[in-house]
Design goal:
Elements lengths: L5 H10 L5 H8 L2 H7 L8 H7 L4 H12 L17 H17 L5 E10 L9 E10 L4 E11 L17 H18 L6 E8 L7 H12 L3 E8 L16 E6 L8 H10 L6 H16 L4 E6 L11 H5 L4 E6 L12 E3 L2 E3 L8 H20 L5 E6 L6 E6 L9 E10 L7 E6 L3 E4 L7 E9 L29
Parallel strand pairs: 3-4, 3-5, 5-8, 6-7
Antiparallel strand pairs: 1-2, 2-4, 6-8, 9-10, 11-12, 12-15, 13-14, 13-16
The structure holds zinc ion (ZN).
Length: 483
């Protein structure tokens, strides 16, 4: 290693997780490559450190207790009582968002979003599935959205049992409490894009609240950059006895469900299987965890959700929106979807004593810092294209983001990584241009992407070229995507 390459190595190792350190070192031993790596530092954002550690465990504890006290929040439970059932629960959540809004001069638009569902396996008779939505409108780009969600409803062993006590403390009062607390923290700030706090209904009966919200967003033309679905963020003790409060999981799907045959054919020759916008959203959040959330490492999982199980980010993914699930690493199955009981000395049920409030606050901090960073950043670039076959250099081009809604744009940054590396490894800020060439970086050997960067250093997620990686509707999607 020459002295000239050493500073580059030091900069890169700060960016990389320790697990990829060995890989980076071996890459840098290639002199030809080092000369062009030019990895740049990120701007360390004081505000994100503050936001990431602002959520209070005591607030989350209080809100989970309040939700548990409604006895059951089953989707089919009674709605008239003020003290029991899902009606009382959603009215309390709405009032809580309104209280938060009152304290920031009315900065949140709070409303119910509902639809009557019937003739479904788990909702045979007509029931109003009612979610609570709160929107903090963006200052310059209000049509661009990031969403944090948790679920109102709970269940016990029999998914149709709507009368038994069903505390749902971790599943998923923890997600709703985290969403409320993130709103308390972030409502103290103003952002470029809009932030949505959603307490979604009907999850256990078939992901209905998420579907209703995703359909409405599509109809209204929301430009959704990411959905952060929080489902069970408070359990630190696995059913196998493992106790761990320093890791979390981010589930992110691969190729989009509505990828066309033409797009799939093109992807076969260009790549993109591991670079859906959901995956690059997950990498973004993983990076936020490394940089801003003390004592937390996230595991990005290349899967839609847990094996054959589901969550409320899926209805958004179904429509092509980037979305991921954030949750604890170690699940305790005796505490999920169980009748409250003791059997053979084993206690079952999702009670509040199974929730670690500090851990839930930590994952809330991860959400809040990610939402803030995404919303302060410019819009992700669209129309990203790449070329360079049989050339020693790689060229990327993209559409300039809208200047009116992104007045704080500084320019764009190219990222690249080895094709089997989990996280982006190299980057180069290229200025306020719409095309850039990486000299002597061979297209065959890396994956590439582009992020937009604000004057104060906030970055959008990295957008992989083509339809496979597009965050927002791709202006060149089929049939011209073959170019
Ligand atoms: Zn559940």
């Amino acid at each position: 290693m020459t002295t000239a390459t050493l500073p580059t190595l030091q900069r890169q190792t700060r960016m990389l997780k320790t697990t990829t350190f060995a890989l980076a070192t071996s890459v840098l031993s290639s002199v030809a490559f080092t000369a062009h790596a030019n990895t740049e530092e990120f701007t360390d954002q004081a505000a994100l450190h503050t936001i990431a550690t602002a959520p209070q465990a005591s607030h989350i504890q209080k809100d989970i207790q309040t939700l548990v006290n409604f006895g059951t929040r089953h989707t089919l439970s009674e709605t008239e009582s003020e003290t029991r059932g899902i009606g009382a629960a959603r009215r309390w959540i709405k009032a809580e968002f309104e209280k938060i809004s009152a304290e920031c001069g009315g900065c949140l638009d709070v409303y119910y979003q509902s639809e009557t569902i019937s003739d479904e396996a788990r909702i045979p008779d007509p029931v109003d599935v009612v979610s609570v939505i709160a929107i903090q409108r963006g200052q310059t780009d209000p049509g661009r959205y990031v969403i944090m969600s948790g679920d109102i409803d709970s269940r016990v062993s029999d998914v149709m049992d709507f009368t038994s006590d069903s505390p749902g403390a971790n599943d998923n009062a923890s997600g709703v409490a985290g969403t409320l607390e993130a709103a308390r923290v972030l409502s103290q700030y103003k952002f470029n894009g809009s932030i949505v706090y959603a307490a979604l209904a009907g999850e256990e009966q078939g992901l209905f609240g998420g579907k209703i919200m995703a359909d409405a967003a599509q109809k209204e033309g929301w430009r959704i950059v990411g959905v952060l679905n929080n489902d069970m963020i408070g359990n630190i003790e696995g059913v196998n006895g493992v106790i761990n409060n320093t890791t979390a999981r981010i589930f992110a799907e691969g190729t989009r469900m509505q990828e066309t045959e033409d797009e799939a054919r093109l992807r076969r020759f260009t790549g993109g299987e591991v670079d859906s916008p959901s995956r690059n959203l997950a990498r973004y959040i993983d990076w936020i965890a490394d940089r801003y959330v003390p004592n937390l490492d996230t595991m990005v999982i290349y899967r839609l959700d847990r094996f054959r199980r589901g969550g409320h980010h899926r209805p958004f993914n179904d429509l092509g929106y980037p979305g991921i699930r954030i949750m604890e690493t170690n699940e305790h199955y005796d505490r999920q979807h169980q009748d409250l009981r003791t059997e053979n000395g084993v206690t079952y049920g999702d009670t509040i004593d199974g929730v670690d409030f500090d851990y839930a606050a930590k994952l809330t901090g991860l959400n809040a810092a990610s939402l803030a960073s995404l919303s302060w950043a410019p819009s992700p670039p669209t129309g990203v294209r790449i070329s360079g076959a049989v050339k020693p250099s790689t060229t990327l081009n993209w559409n300039a983001v809208d200047a009116a809604t992104n007045p704080h744009l500084k320019g764009y940054k190219i990222y690249w990584r080895l094709t089997d590396a989990p996280q982006w490894q190299f980057s180069k800020f290229v200025g306020n241009v719409t095309e850039a060439m990486l000299e002597n970086v061979v297209i065959d050997n890396y994956f590439f992407g582009v992020a937009s960067v604000s004057e104060d250093g906030y970055e959008s997620p990295v957008v992989f070229p083509g339809a496979a990686g597009a965050f927002l509707p791709d202006p060149y999607a089929e049939p011209s995507s073959k170019r």
